[in-house]
C-alpha cells in the first residue's frame, strides 16, 4: 500500500493550521483508496501559538499527523530538509501551510509518480505579487534559468512531489546555504511540469521579507553558478587591458615630446572606480569562501527540539 508523506513547513501559521488540516483531510478523497497519508508539520521556531495549533490537529488525527519542533528558526528550506528526514512515505510532497498552492493538484502529481516519474513539479503560471516584488521574482527566476540551472521551469517552483530515492539523495548531500528544490533539479532526474495558478493568501501575514528574498537569491545563485567569479576575472582582464593601452599612450606622448594630459580629476575617478571594483570583487569571493568555511564546520542544518510521530 503506497504511502504519501506531505511536508508542511510552518512559521507563524497558527491561524492557518486548522484550515490547512481540514482541507488536507478532505483532499484524500481525490486519491485511490489504497493510498495512506502522513502529514509532517515542521515548526520553524514560530513565536506564536503555531505549535499549540499543530498538537491540537494531531489530537484530531493521531494516526496521520507528525509534529516536528525545531529549536530555532533556520529557514523554510532547512525545515523542509528536516521534514524529509522524518517522513516515512514512499513518495513525498512539500506544501505551504497557507494553502496558496492547491492541495487538489497533489492527486495529479501522485498519478505521474505511479507512472514512474520520480520528480513532479507544480509550476506557477501567475503570481499574486505586484510591482517591485513581482519584478524581483521574475528577475530571480530568469537569472537562475539563464546562468545557473538551465532546466529550471520558468516562474520557479516550491510545490513538488518526489520519490523516496530523490529524498535520499537530498539528505545525503546535506548542502548548506542552498535551495533544496533546485538541488532536486540538479540531480538530473527527468521531471513532469504541471502548470497552476497560485491562490492569494486568505489568512495571516506572510513572513517572507525582503532580506529573506535577497538571501535566497544569493544562496541559490552562488550554489549553482560560477558566473560571479567569472565576471570578476573578465572585468580584471578588461581593466588590465585598458590600463596597458593607456600606459602605452602616455609613454608614446613622452617619447614623441607631446604634452602629457593633466588629469588629477580623471586619475582620482579611475582610482576610485578600481577601488570600488576591488571591494565588490572581495565581497563576491567572500561569499564563496564563507560557504566553504560553513560547510567545513559541519554544524547541523537544524536542531530538533521535539518530535511527535504518528501513532501506529
Automatic annotation (TrEMBL):
* Organism domain of life: Bacteria
Tell me if Plastid is a UniProt keyword of this record: no
Tell me where in this chain the Glycosyltransferase 2-like domain is found: 5-153
Q: Mention any one GO cellular component term assigned to this protein in its UniProt record.
A: plasma membrane
Name the InterPro entries for this protein. Answer: Glyco_trans_2-like, Glycosyltransferase_2, Nucleotide-diphossugar_trans
Q: Which residues cross the membrane?
A: 180-197, 217-246, 266-290
| This protein's UniProt keywords | Cell membrane, Glycosyltransferase, Lipopolysaccharide biosynthesis, Membrane, Transferase, Transmembrane, Transmembrane helix
Which molecular-function annotations from GO does this UniProt entry contain? glycosyltransferase activity
- On whether ATP-binding is a keyword of this UniProt record, the answer is no
Alphabetized SUPFAM superfamilies for the sequence? Nucleotide-diphospho-sugar transferases
| GO biological processes | lipopolysaccharide biosynthetic process
What is the name attached to this protein's record?
A: Dolichol-phosphate mannosyltransferase
Amino acid at each position: 500500500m503506497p504511502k504519501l508523506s506531505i511536508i508542511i513547513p510552518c512559521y507563524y501559521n497558527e491561524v492557518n493550521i486548522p484550515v490547512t488540516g481540514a482541507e488536507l483531510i478532505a483532499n484524500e478523497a481525490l486519491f485511490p483508496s489504497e493510498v495512506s497519508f502522513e502529514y509532517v508539520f515542521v515548526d520553524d521556531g514560530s513565536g506564536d501559538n503555531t505549535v499549540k495549533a499543530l498538537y491540537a490537529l494531531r489530537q484530531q488525527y493521531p494516526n496521520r499527523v507528525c509534529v516536528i519542533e525545531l529549536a530555532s528558526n533556520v529557514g523554510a528550506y532547512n525545515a523542509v530538509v528536516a521534514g524529509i528526514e522524518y517522513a516515512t512515505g514512499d513518495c513525498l510532497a512539500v506544501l505551504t501551510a497557507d494553502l496558496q498552492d492547491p492541495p487538489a493538484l497533489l492527486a495529479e502529481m501522485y498519478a505521474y509518480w505511479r507512472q514512474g516519474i520520480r520528480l513532479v513539479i507544480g509550476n506557477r503560471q501567475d503570481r499574486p505579487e505586484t510591482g517591485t516584488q513581482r519584478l524581483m521574482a521574475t528577475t530571480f527566476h530568469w537569472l537562475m534559468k539563464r546562468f545557473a540551472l538551465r532546466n529550471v521551469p520558468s516562474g520557479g517552483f516550491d510545490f513538488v512531489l518526489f520519490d523516496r530515492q530523490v529524498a535520499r539523495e537530498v539528505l545525503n548531500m546535506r548542502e548548506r546555504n542552498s535551495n533544496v528544490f533546485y538541488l532536486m533539479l540538479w540531480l538530473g532526474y527527468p521531471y513532469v511540469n504541471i502548470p497552476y495558478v497560485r491562490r492569494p493568501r486568505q489568512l495571516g501575514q506572510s513572513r517572507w521579507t525582503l532580506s529573506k528574498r535577497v538571501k535566497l537569491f544569493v544562496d541559490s545563485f552562488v550554489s549553482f553558478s560560477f558566473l560571479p567569479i567569472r565576471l570578476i576575472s573578465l572585468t580584471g582582464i578588461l581593466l588590465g587591458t585598458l590600463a596597458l593601452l593607456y600606459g602605452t599612450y602616455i609613454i608614446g606622448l613622452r617619447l614623441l615630446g607631446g604634452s602629457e594630459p593633466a588629469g588629477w580629476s580623471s586619475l582620482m575617478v579611475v582610482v576610485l572606480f578600481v577601488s570600488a571594483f576591488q571591494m565588490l570583487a572581495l565581497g563576491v569571493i567572500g561569499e564563496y569562501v564563507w560557504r566553504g568555511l560553513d560547510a567545513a564546520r559541519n554544524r547541523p542544518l537544524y536542531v530538533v527540539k521535539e518530535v511527535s510521530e504518528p501513532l501506529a
